[in-house]
Design goal:
The protein is an alpha+beta fold and about 300 residues long. The chain folds into two domains: about 5-95; about 100-300, Beta Barrel (Porin), CATH 2.40.160.20. About 25% of the residues lie in helices and about 50% in strands. It has helices spanning about 15-40, 50-65, 75-90, 120-125; strands spanning about 95-115, 125-140, 140-155, 160, 165-170, 175-185, 195-210, 215-240, 255-275, 275-300. Strands 1-2-3-6-7-8-9-10 form an eight-stranded antiparallel barrel. The protein has a two-stranded antiparallel ribbon with strand order 4-5. It starts with 14 loop residues before the first helix and ends with a strand.
């Protein structure tokens, strides 16, 4: 501190007052260094900043009380010496700075529904199930691999055939299962760090399975997939090297984000039935909870 530039009140400009305020400044610097060490290690609890402020306020009050308003220079000298010793043993790191790298990944899981349209609806009813998705990203480019499992039922009586060509009738309402996948490319739009929209284009495949006491019938489907995902991030945290969850490696660090995603796909499915090929669109909706991470680089200015 500079004595001639540190005081607004002319009468307060004394050497002893300057020494007292220098100790107060050093106490604040000591708390800053200790808090920075916690932030760099990413071990700081949510109350770390409030604790640092409280520690400084208590120390400042103790100092002012100890030296009294008349400035006890002997006590002040003791505070100067002990504070300088504590500063000397506390590393003066700069504040941490996290630089975002272009790579990201995420895993999402949640309930889903499947609703057939057109000719597919004539054979199968809609149903509910589960959606599991793994994402790989580079900047705003997203590659998604989706796995879905739904329960369904027959919308009309059908016949399924065994390997010998013998038909087995199955009644309307009989249970069926649909398991399939979608691989898609998406481009993330309107990403402000908290919310984003991602239109997607890809390819879908799957198997509609009907199981009876006599036979297992399967209808293999495939077709183009159009999708749209809305993401809401509700938690963000930086993880230091060696403490990352999704980016493995001793030197890896990451920005971890929890999110809720609303995912919608329209897939065109075609399969071979008894009376020929059947094709039509299906709608798949999923509400997923996701854990995502973006690779970061920890540096100091």
């Amino acid at each position: 501190m500079v004595l001639t530039e540190s005081w607004a009140a002319e009468g307060a400009r004394t050497a002893t007052a300057l020494r007292c305020n220098q100790v107060l400044f050093d106490l604040a610097e000591l708390e800053r260094r200790q808090l920075t060490a916690l932030l760099v290690a990413v071990t700081a609890p949510k109350s770390a900043v409030a604790t640092a402020e409280s520690n400084y306020s208590n120390a400042a009050l103790t100092l002012r009380t100890a030296i009294a308003e008349g400035f006890d220079t002997a006590v002040l000298a003791l505070w100067e010496r002990t504070t300088a010793e504590r500063l000397a043993t506390t590393e003066a790191d700069d504040m941490p700075n996290y630089e975002l790298r272009p790579w990201s990944t995420a895993i999402l899981l949640g309930p889903a529904m499947w609703e057939p349209m057109g000719d597919v609806r004539a054979d199968f009813k809609g149903g509910f199930g589960v959606d599991l998705c793994i994402e790989f990203g580079y900047k705003s480019h997203i590659l998604s691999i989706e796995s879905m499992l739904f329960t369904s039922a027959l919308a009309q009586p059908i016949a399924i055939f065994d390997n010998n060509g013998l038909g087995h009738p199955v009644a309307q309402g009989h249970a069926s299962n649909f398991n399939g996948g979608i691989i898609s490319y998406g481009f993330r739009l309107a990403d402000n760090g908290k919310t984003s929209f991602t239109p997607m284009l890809g390819w879908s495949w799957g198997t509609q399975t009907v199981v009876t006491d006599d036979i297992i019938g399967q209808f293999n489907t495939n077709g183009v997939a159009l999708g749209l995902a809305y993401r809401l991030c509700f938690s963000r945290r930086y993880r230091a090297p060696g403490k990352s969850w999704l980016f493995l490696g001793r030197d890896a660090s990451e920005l971890t984000r929890w999110s809720v995603d609303l995912r919608a796909f329209a897939t065109h499915q075609s399969y071979k039935a008894v009376d020929g090929n059947v094709g039509g669109w299906t709608i798949q909706l999923a509400l997923t909870l996701g854990l995502g991470a973006r690779s970061t680089r920890l540096s100091t200015p």
